[in-house]
Specification:
Pathway: Cofactor biosynthesis; pyridoxal 5'-phosphate biosynthesis
CATH superfamily: Class I glutamine amidotransferase (GATase) domain
Helix content: 25-40%
Strand order of the largest sheet: 2-1-3-4-12-11-10
Number of strands: 12
Family: Belongs to the glutaminase PdxT/SNO family.
Pfam families: SNO (PF01174)
Shape: globular
Largest sheet: 7 strands, mixed
CATH class: Alpha Beta
Order of helices and strands: EHEHEHHEHEEEEEEEEH
CATH topology: Rossmann fold
Protein name: Pyridoxal 5'-phosphate synthase subunit PdxT
Distance between the termini: 8 Å
Subunit structure: In the presence of PdxS, forms a dodecamer of heterodimers. Only shows activity in the heterodimer.
Length: 188
Amino acid sequence: MRVGVLSLQGGVIEHINHLNKLNVEAIEVKKIDDLKKIDGIILPGGESTTIGKLLRDANLLTPLKALIQSGLPTWGTCAGMILLAKEIENDTRRHLEVMDIKVKRNAFGSQIDSFKKIDIVPEVSNNPIELVFIRAPYISEAGKDVRIIHKVENKIVAAKQKNILVTSFHPELTDDLNFHNYFIKMVN
């Protein structure tokens, strides 16, 4: 099994390190040919506007969207969630538009408002998991086919729709491998 990590900007190496700890071959996705080598893809946190622009510049936006729509297991963390959303509440730009969610960028505040929370996410693990929020978005509306996986402060911070998983937080910035394991099961 090979899992790609979109490697245009953001928390790429942290996801690669977690995949390697799980003995999963991680591939940096930078060009169209890289998409042919993967069984699933992670869209990391970073700056959604920048990543969206780089997706277009690299001519990756349309082929990646087609792969996701045809069933490629996909996980977006933070900025990745914004890239996947059909609607962005406080931004006119749209990117992949493949998940029936409306997100609010920087919804928990600016960089200085970043926080950690320890929570149990039953669908992912029965043990407490550290959730790291950095300028995090949240889902303000979810379509009927979207399954809500977790909420914090009554805000949707993790959800799934068919082959797509999104999290507002950054599991790759902790030592916990539960969310990466969960995604690997989706790829399998």
